[in-house]
Amino acid sequence: MSIQAETIIDLKTYPIDRPESVEYRSIVEVVKEGLDEDGCVVLPNFLSDVGLSALVEESEARKSQAYYSESKQCNIYLGNGNPNVANNHPQNIFMERSNGFITADLLGEGTYAHALYYWKPLRDFLADCLSKKELHIYADPISNMIVNLCKAQQTFNWHFDTNEFTITFLLQGAESGGHFEYIPDLRTRNDECFDEVKKVLNGDRSRVKRLDLQEGDLQFFLGRYSLHQVTHNTGSTDRLLLIQSFTEMSGVIGNPSRVKDLYGKTTLAHKERVDDRLRSDRLLD
Predict the structure, then answer these.
(1) Concatenated DSSP letters for 130-141?
(2) What is the enclosing helix (H) or strand (E) of 96?
(3) Is the pTM of this model over 0.90?
(4) What is the domain partition of the chain in residue ranges?
């Protein structure tokens, strides 16, 4: 029996299948206002109990296949540094990266994650919330829909996103630690703001915000300009976060070297394209 995407979302609270409704428009306006304010919005308990349970179960079943990068140290741009700048420059400050990823090719047809990702009413709802004319499935067969796995004592260091926005669902939280933290608009489209970034990396937490995410929550996040991290998981429960990526143009695929480093594999589709990432700026990753 095929999985019905409608059962994965709490459509009574979030009627995203009824875009003509007053409730739908109200939710969209709440998200837009929040994104304008600081680039981050959470819709609590977006997933249904049935959907959340199924997504956790299929992620747990695939944890043994998660990929952990061989590069255990990286800078906030997820790169290898810059020999042409000072040693204390943000590009040359390295941090632990220990989280793993369950990749999209492990979550194919017949999974709840796949059904949710490809359900068009969800994609249309996300586009409305993000003020986009249309969103397309990210064509990358490895990284378009992934689960970020943080086991005990693992972390995902401070970084910026390559994409303008990310859509995430917390499937399972850590018993302690594993907090999502961010600094809104730490850099701009035209300025890396290295001095402000360096302050954060040196321990300044005056602008840091921490989210109290709960299992089943949907998070909108504009991570291109906002530095963010997942702190160390200090409990015994694995933290599972479903990440969905979309693009404004069809057929976009990830940079082969970046995909290989983060997820441990590429496909024939990657070999045919050198770099099809959408870029609206010249910022570092």
Answers:
(1) TT-S--EE---T
(2) strand 95-96
(3) yes
(4) 5-271
